[in-house]
């Protein structure tokens, strides 16, 4: 029988805890593959008292018996990749044979990062609040059919690099954005290109399809979140890749018929990093309290994450777009001490109320309902029968509202603090 590709996706604004769940699930799969994004991602994994933050490398890397793949839908910065991989090697993980990189993945040049800064500066107040990793400009060059791919590094690379760099420098000069020096960065980047050559740089789509034909199962690890998707997110305050389940097929080269379960990862509350509409945002001490307890500071940029209550309008939309079969609720423990937990059930603007995602989420306010908190620490809970009754009632309520089972509940950052509910059949 053919294998399946299960997708594990962040279904809100990213940072839902994807890395933790992928790491936890890895023993159940043969391959873990990233299909979109690049070093804008920061996936935190904690086990045995150790903490790692992965950016380009899939979160299946800590199980040394598994193949990890960086797929064609990803963008890769050789210097950052080298630093990330070397950190893992220093920690004792051998990577080279079990980390395959698609030859079709696009390269983030140092000048892409400068362009990212220049475009943001030009937008002024309307800036996206990007991670500054050159994501937008790299995907733009891909779509414009002028980008450089991993497979390009073997032939006449210096000339190809210089040509694209010259084009970028011209744009920067036109924008009067000339106060930068990338010479040091460029040396590190070229060292990264050489370093990458020790990894299998392959046609990963063919490899993955061959593995599926042999009955092997693949876990596709999402990056970012559905509301940051280039098509389905809160455009233009989005990232530049396809972060939703459709992106799994294009970003790995696997057919839609190979997709099995679609796990939608969300937090018991909401966060967003960067600019853009966020109707549930709390500007008061409750927002600060969620940020403090949940340590909601960016894993990549250290920025404060904006915090708010859970948003059922956004979740229903993301469940629809992705075809989520199983929900995964993270960071439930962060709300342990709250007497009342609020839930956004609709948006309102100019007397109009909607419970479906509007075209433009700007200017809408959240309509919330109150639920009673459970007021008990969840951190030590390991089985569903240990759920405090009020927490069980909250989970049941969300499942009803979202018409989708919550199959997994996470109650702490550690690998161990993960509960698979018996009803999930996993
Ligand atoms: P990702 O980008 O989706 O992989 O998520 P991040 O790693 O950026 O952010 C998730 C943060 O929450 C990390 O610091 C995790 O260690 C932490 N975390 C994950 N699950 C839980 C949980 O259930 N409870 C708590 N308190 N922290 C969690
Ligand atoms: P993970 O995988 C949260 C946000 C940025 C910005 C917008 C565009 O860790 O969940 P970009 O640099 O991609 O052009 O920035 O998207 N963003 C993320 N927010 N988690 C992420 O990744 C993100 N990756 C990008 O803050 O608002
Ligand atoms: Mg993150």
Write the layout of secondary structure elements.
Blueprint (H helix, E strand, L loop, with lengths): L4 E6 L7 H8 L5 E4 L8 E5 L2 E5 L12 E4 L4 E2 L1 H13 L8 E4 L3 E2 L2 H14 L11 H9 L13 H18 L8 H14 L4 E2 L1 H10 L4 E4 L23 H8 L6 E9 L2 E3 L12 H10 L11 E3 L1 E2 H11 L3 E5 L9 E10 L2 E3 L10 E8 L16 H14 L3 E5 L7 E3 L6
Parallel strand pairs: 1-10, 1-11, 2-5, 2-10, 5-7, 6-8, 7-9, 11-15, 14-16, 15-19
Antiparallel strand pairs: 3-4, 12-13, 16-17, 16-18, 19-20
Number of strands: 20
Order of strands across the main sheet: 9-7-5-2-10-1-11-15-19-20
What's the total helix number? 11
State the secondary-structure class. alpha/beta
Proportion of beta-strand residues = 15-25%
- State the separation between the terminal residues, measured CA to CA: 19 Å
Largest sheet: 10 strands, mixed
Give the averaged pLDDT, no decimals. 97
């Amino acid at each position: 029988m053919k294998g399946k590709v299960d997708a594990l996706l962040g279904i809100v604004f990213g940072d839902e805890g994807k890395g933790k769940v992928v790491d936890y699930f890895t023993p159940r799969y043969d391959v873990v593959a990233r299909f979109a994004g690049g070093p804008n991602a920061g996936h935190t994994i904690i086990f045995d008292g150790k903490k790692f933050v992965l950016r380009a490398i899939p979160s299946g890397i800590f199980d040394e018996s598994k193949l990890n793949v960086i797929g064609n839908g990803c963008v890769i910065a050789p210097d950052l990749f080298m630093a990330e991989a070397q950190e893992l090697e220093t920690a004792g993980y051998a990577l080279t044979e079990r980390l395959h990189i698609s030859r079709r993945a696009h390269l983030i040049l140092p000048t892409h990062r400068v362009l990212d800064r220049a475009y943001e500066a030009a937008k002024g107040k309307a800036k996206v609040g990007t991670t500054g990793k050159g994501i937008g400009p790299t995907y733009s060059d891909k779509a414009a059919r002028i980008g450089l791919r991993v497979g390009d590094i073997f032939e006449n690379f210096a000339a190809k690099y210089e040509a694209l760099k010259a084009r970028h420098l011209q744009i920067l000069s036109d924008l009067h954005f000339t106060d930068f020096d990338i010479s040091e960065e460029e040396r590190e980047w070229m060292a990264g290109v050489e370093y990458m050559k020790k990894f299998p740089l392959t046609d990963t789509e063919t490899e993955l399809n061959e593995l599926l034909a042999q009955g092997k199962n693949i876990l596709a690890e999402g990056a970012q979140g559905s509301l940051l998707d280039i098509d389905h997110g809160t455009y233009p305050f989005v990232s530049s890749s396809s972060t939703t389940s459709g992106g799994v097929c294009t970003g790995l080269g696997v057919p839609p018929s190979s997709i099995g379960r679609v796990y939608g990862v969300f937090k018991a509350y909401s966060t967003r990093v960067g600019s853009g509409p966020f109707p549930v945002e709390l500007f008061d001490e409750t927002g600060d309290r969620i940020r403090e307890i949940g340590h909601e500071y960016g894993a990549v940029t250290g920025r404060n994450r904006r915090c708010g209550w859970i948003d059922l309008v956004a979740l229903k939309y993301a469940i629809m777009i992705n075809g989520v079969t199983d929900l995964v609720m993270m960071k439930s423990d962060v709300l342990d001490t709250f007497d009342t937990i609020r839930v956004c059930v609709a948006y309102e603007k100019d007397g109009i109320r909607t419970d479906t995602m509007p075209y433009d989420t700007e200017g809408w306010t959240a309509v919330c309902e109150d639920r009673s908190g459970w007021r008990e620490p969840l951190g030590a809970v390991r089985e569903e029968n240990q759920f405090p009754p009020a927490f069980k009632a909250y989970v049941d309520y969300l499942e009803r509202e979202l018409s989708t089972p919550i199959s997994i509940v996470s109650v702490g950052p550690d690998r161990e603090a993960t509960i698979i509910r018996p009803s999930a059949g996993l």
